[in-house]
Amino acid sequence: xxxxxxxxxxxxxxxxxxxxxxxxxxxxxxxxxxxxxxxxxxxxxxxxxxxxxxxxxxxxxxxxxxxxxxxxxxxxxxxxxxxxxxxxxxxxxxxxxxxxxxxxxxxxxxxxxxxxxxxxxxxxxxxxxxxxxxxxxxxxxxxxxxxxxxxxxxxxxxxxxxxxxxxxxxxxxxxxxxxxxxxxxxxxxxxxxxxxxxxxxxxxxxxxxxxxxxxxxxxxxxxxxxxxxxxxxxxxxxxxxxxxxxxxxxxxxxxxxxxxxxxxxxxxxxxxxxxxxxxxxxxxxxxxxxxxxxxxxxxxxxxxxxxxxxxxxxxxxxxxxxxxxxxxxxxxxxxxxxxxxxxxxxxxxxxxxxxxxxxxxxxxxxxxxxxxxxxxxxxxxxxxxxxxxxxxxxxxxxxxxxxxxxxxxxxxxxxxxxxxxxxxxxxxxxxxxxxxxxxxxxxxxxxxxxxxxxxxxxxxxxxxxxx
Length: 467
Ligand code: GDP
Hints:
Number of helices: 11
Helix content: 25-40%
Bound molecules: guanosine-5'-diphosphate
Shape: globular
Largest sheet: 5 strands, parallel
Structural class: alpha/beta
């Protein structure tokens, strides 16, 4: 398969999806406004759903022509294996005392997903600067004895940061000459290096863009995969938990993030809003697999969600780990439940076939990232009720306009072919919001008239590690 071929196929599928978001929201609007007879609009909606189902099946068939699905999976595994071996090489220098290093600590005052993304950014910096990452994790809020009580150490040979010269990021104009650089949390990173997400190493991009629809997510997934290597006893516990819960076969993962997040960082969404998309997934799949068991892995920080789900949706089989973690895992150990709970939920959400969640939550974003390492291309296997995918602290994410559109005085801005638009979000109704870099105007535009810009950056190519 060629890049051109795959990009054309993916574009056609995205356009179809956007058409559906648009039609669906327009029809709901007609019903709300009382335009035409309601029964007529509802019938139209049902008829159009038939077209959509068939088109989605058509795209599924196209995706699988000549076993292309298997080919994508093999490519993803092959490239992923290369990247993992590069991390191994970087993290295990033969002479630790001579190795240049980057130091990060785990004291960022936030939840597990956020902390994982913090170390992920550190590992990206380490990879981009060819420096071994040293993680200081004593006193970690989730397990005070440190990261290594639960996860494999980031290095087998090099965990000491005592070196001759040391500086803080940005403190010197010539950082390269220092043996050790202390990295701050991403929020206070200045100057900003060019390797920050959503940038992708350019040597990987050439391969990656052919088989994967969202290269930055795949790349971040590989980073998280290296970090999220559990100790054998922890992995055993997690696997056993899955067997006990009955995690098997096709499963849709639903993550409902509530408690401390609501109103501060995200809006409340009822369980029904998530279940609409779960139903859509299974209705579509049932065409090819009649009588499929509708399994849903339900993860939440709100303990009222599971009982509600079980009583309201008896036609679904809910799988859940019942240890609910509060976001402040202060003073806990793995076995206390808080860390165990979120690890189990992340592990199984990532192993679902499809995710329905809010991408405003780092928990679901981590799951979506890891999911990419287990498939050929799972970049479409989600439905977010709020944000599009992003990485906290990322560089501006731009899209390229490929077809023009006039402004309409109703929030829709003017776009011209070639414009770059800084994307703020998709409204899942056919329109996205962004700022036009040419005009400086902020507004809506039809999503299908744009395509993603993937930023690639030259990073070390690790010639010592064979392909
Ligand atoms: P965010 O606040 O949702 O963006 O993600 P963070 O990971 O930074 O913080 C949320 C924390 O709340 C997690 O780390 C968990 O400790 C807890 N939490 C949130 N959702 C879940 C869930 O579905 N399951 C479990 N076990 N814990 C959760």
